[in-house]
Amino acid sequence: MATIELEKVEKKFGTSYAVRPMDLTIKDGEFLVLLGPSGCGKTTTLRMISGLETVSDGHIRLNKRDVTWAHPSDRDIAFVFQFFALYPHMTARQNIAFTLQAQGVPNNEVKQRVDNVIKLLQIEHLVDGRPGTLSSGDQQRVALARALVRQPAAFLMDEPLGALDADFRETMRAEIKRLHIDQHATTVYVTHDQIEAMAMGDRIVVMSAAVVQQVGTPQDVYHNPANLFVARFIGSPGMNLITGTYSDGQIRLSAGNVYSVPTPWQAALQRGIGSDGKVILGFRPEAAAVSANGELGAQVYSSDLHGSFTMLHLNLDQNEIVHVRTARQTSYPIGSAIRFDLDPRMVRFFNPQTEAAISHEVQP
Amino acid sequence: MSDIAIHGITKQFKQVTALDNVSLDIKNNEFFVLLGPTGAGKTTTLRVIAGLEKQDRGTVTFDGQPVDQLSPADRDTAFVFQQYSLYPTMSVFDNLAFPLRSPLRHVAEPEIKQRVQKAAELLRITHLLERKTARLSGGEMQRVSIGRSIVREPRIFLMDEPLSNLDAKLREALRVELKHIQKTQASTTLFVTHDQIEALTMADRIGVLREGKLIQVGTPNDIYDRPATTFVAQLVGTPRINLYRATRENGSLHIMSSAIKLPTPNADIPSSILMGIRPEDVKITPDGELGGEVALIEPLGVETVIHIRMGEQTLVCLVPGLMPLMIGETVRFDVIRESLHYFTTDGDRIAV
Amino acid sequence: MATSFEQVGPRVPVVESIRVDKVSPRARLAGQARAVIASIIAFIMLIPVIWIVLTAFKPQADVTAIPPKLFFQPSLAGFVSLLLDTRLLSQDDQAKISENPNLTWIDRIALQSGRSVNGSSQYAGQLLNSLIVAGTSTVLSVGLGLFAAYAFSRFHIPGSGDLLFFILSTRMLPPAVVTIPIFLLYRSVGLYDTQLGLIMLYTVFNLSFSVWLLKGFIDEIPREYEEAALVDGYTRLQTFFRIVVPQALTGIAATTVFCLIFAWNEYAFALMLTSQKARTAPPAIPSILGSGGIEWNTIAAGALLFLIPVVIVTFALRRHLLRGVTFGAIRK
User: Fold this and answer.
1) Residue C318: helix, strand or coil by DSSP?
2) Which residue of A176, A238, B67, B113 has the lowest C-beta tally within 10 Å?
């Protein structure tokens, strides 16, 4: 299969960057997700890898071969689009066979390869219909089959689940991931949905404002976000981030709350906080536990059922809301006072000036 | 604020029955959510209540008074649309003031100013008042739309998927805020959505619509724990409920195409049923009674979705945090018996 | 801090491309070459217009000079003989008049081409007729068309498809075919050679066009705006003026320009249905061809004055117009 290397690849439109210079190595057989809000440069990056977009500077190598200026069709990659891009006047089977026929593959081989892919994706019942008669999920299955049948060096997918109904999305997410586990083809997958990225990616590249913010495994970006953007963007809701002033092992937060920093963190904080002594305390909603004599206090702003759990939204003060995940059947009236503790292993700290996470060599 | 009731509403569009004998009672100050897929008739219900659409049969009453003959303007409802509801040629202030400047209301300009200011503060959009609406972000636009409905103090708020065009983060935040405002301002609200999370998190009561028929009305807990049909069961909860065909054999329930057997509950159970298992009701433990092979792991951070293959069936389960499992590994698990759902093969709930 | 809305998006706005570049940066050079060629073509196309402007300001003597003069002493002689009734003077009279100290600047210009001024010419009145007829009929056809288009767009009208086609079909007859019956009709009801007659005719002719064009624009305005206003306590008519009209401005501008250009340029009806008092400029311009030789500078001045109103309106509405004519081409 394939490795893909990006070396100082950038894309400029006039003086503004769509993608600032980025280095990235995608390993053989890896499922890499490019994640970020719209306009962050993730799709442009994918399109540069595919050759649908030229690079402004830098090099792209596919299996060590420089393909920076190669035509898309010479790169041996398959592209799966958000809107399927199936040819409406052909049956699903003809759609799948089309690229192979265009490459001049002998007819009996085309038939055999198409049949194999149809069997692999279990779409036997779909292949005689025109794309227009299929549901959105089935159309994307056919589009996947068309990409798979070419046996390309790598797959590039641009939000392939974005146009699907919510019902299909969950199912297709599992199907694509399962397919990857079986086929082990190098895949670059673009999405703005952090849940999709977490569920599918071997590694995630979080992008924002044309800049790579963090590259890491789902666990990394979730538990050890590199900066405030990643902390907010990953998770639903994102990480709680509250600003305070650090001194002598304690962070003074708003409304008289004081948080005692776990001892192993204190040295790191001493070095890492902003010049004005401000620090941002971050914790995931599940890192907080309601308890009668908890360390921090707040008022209930709202609380709501999410099916298998209840989410509490608490006012620390007028403008600061934190989210706390609790057991399902708990319910608190709006405005009632509540206290909670933080799991010391799951707190993180950020420098408000640089917005970067304060690092700590040994995770406590 | 008012009690709103609709009774026996039927509405046809050419050959399509959009609403089929729908009756609803929305209590004063209640947050009522209509949940259903696209084309279920949710928006039509809103439009009938607002008077923008005329029903073929049935009555709409506000505080016990029929309003079927009243024009939209005279019904005094506030409608928040999914999109396109801000007048692009006006500033934010003028948009907010627009309903108050209606010739119907004769509100004096100083009072308009004061009420707009109050609504703007509530929705934190005071800094936007002078701006043209074309220069707002999606989230800001929807705040202004909601603001425009609040300045009026109408008898009921009708909201047609107001959050569905926003990105995920914004939707989450606005959802929480909207619920807080509704609770603290105590206003009767009918909110339409296809998003089950919005329904569960915001509603006092939920009505589930499907193809023009009201399937179930109940609190979020009712809907989640005691879905009336398999349709409702599959509509709420992510990941979706596992649903299997099962047969009753010798006092135990056997899930088809798998080796799973569970004891029959103490109830009158037909010989062939559908059985529902919510993903969070599966507990993975080394000494579990049941077993299967891990087919897929989806780490979502706060929790992990694990697909377990048993025979030809796949069981999706949801476990908190991270679980050190490998694909292909055999796992043991239990299901929480009390939380199992039983349905007839037609999809109706069997009470146990 | 934890939940605030401003922090969700990227910190720096980024323009994302939807362009498909399949070629190397050399394409940029080709693009620039295309721009140069387009400019040259545009210049060639503009030559006749430039020539009209130049000719209009040339003195009579320079108009037919060979080789053509690009640089000359500009003169308003063409405009004076166009707009004023002048008489050719003998050498003696010229000398006599030129000694008169009370000459106006207009008299002096006329004198340069050996003429004296008697009063204003017919063309001035004809230009005014054109302004009144074209202006009034445009306002009427756009105004009435807007109401009709709104009704067709928003209300359920039985057989509206057939009705719309019928309305358009009135535009399909070539004017030449119907001029004779209309001429006879107008003569018998006393509308012959009246401004009212032309205004009515142009309004009816443009109405079908404006209904169709405006309906397209109104269809594109989401109904939700109006419904929101209806729920907010406004009547249908108030909603129409306060919500629909402001948003349809682009379409109204485009329709106005098209209707104006038709009414302003219309020749066949104007020739047949007017003679003296209601005659408009288009049929009048050929009659400027003077008695003694062709006065090209006068004709050019006539053409230039005729161009100006349309250019002004189009220029004033250009922002709307550009959006108007590309309307519907770009969708989300």
Assistant:
1) helix
2) B113
